Amino acid sequence: MPFDQAYQPFAVMHVRTSTSPQHVLPSVMAAVQSLDPDLALLNPATVAEVIGQALWAPRFAAALFGVFGLLGMLLAMVGVYGVMAYMVLQRTSEIGLRMAMGANSSDLMHMVVGQSMRLAVAGIALGICVALALTRLVANLLFDVSPNDPATFLAVVGLLGLTALLAGGVPAWRATRIDPVSALRQE
Question: What per-residue confidence (pLDDT) applies to 38?
Fold first, then answer.
C-alpha cells in the first residue's frame, strides 16, 4: 500500500544481517540518510537492545526477588544460630555437671549437636512441605526454573543443615571448654 494512502507519522524499518548488528547499524543509517537527508532517524537500535528495554522491569523484579530471598535465607540462618546457641547456653550447667561426673567432651558434643540437629531436621522437613505446597503460587514468575527445582531445595537444605550443625556445635564446643566448677556455680 502506498505510504500516501496509509500515512503513519513514523515508520519502522527492520534489517536482517548475518554479521554483528552493531557494525551494520551505522551503514544502514547512512544509506537511509542518503535517500532523504531531512529524515529524522529516531531510536535506531538492535533487536537485542529493544528486547532488553522491554524486559528491564521483569529483570529488576527478579533481581529484587533474589535479593530478598537471600536476605530471608540469611535471617533464617541467624535465627537458627541464635536459637541453637541459646539452647546450649541454657544447658551450660548441665554440661558442667556431666563434665564433673566424668563425661568426656566428645560425648557431650555428640549429645548437644545431636539434639540441635534433630530440631533442625524437623524444621527443615516442615519447611520443605510448606515450600512444596506454596511453590504453585510463584510458578508463573519463574523462567527456566521448575517451581520444585531439586537443586535449589538441596542447596537450601544443605545450607540450613550446615548452619544448624555450626549453631549447635560452636556453642557446645565452647561449653565443653569451660571449667566444670564455674559452670556449676552459674546455677
Answer: 84
Q: Where on the phi/psi map is residue 104: left (φ > 0), alpha (ψ -120 to 50), or beta? A: beta
What is the per-residue pLDDT across 74-130, written as a single tens digit (0 to 9) for each? Answer: 888 788 788 877 887 787 778 878 888 888 888 888 888 888 888 889 989 999 999
Concatenating the DSSP letter of every residue in 52-103 gives HHHTHHHHHHHHHHHHHHHHHHHHHHHHHHHHHHHHHHHTHHHHHHHHHTT-
- Is residue 67 within 8 A of residue 161, CB to CB? The reply is no
d(CA 23, CA 17): 10
Rounded Cα–Cα distance for residues 184 and 149 (Å) = 49
CA-based end-to-end distance of the chain: 94
